[in-house]
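Mods, move this if it's the wrong board.
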Amino acid sequence: MNIAPPNINDPVSYAFNGDYRPCGVIAKISKDHKIITTSGGQKFYRQGQNSRWLMHKTWSLVKGHIDRTNPHF
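Not the wrong board. Structure tokens:
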């Protein structure tokens, strides 16, 4: 599966276990694409060459503004 890389000004949210919260837009991407910083100040880090960025080793960066809570709780 080929996933398009993130771009500056893309709207993003963070997600974990079915919970999603908007966190602004991508404000900065490091030259090596290891760190993505949002307009809300959150920093997401990529390990290796995968297409997944994490904040605090838990919250995943996802495209789009999503505000949704897991209905199972």
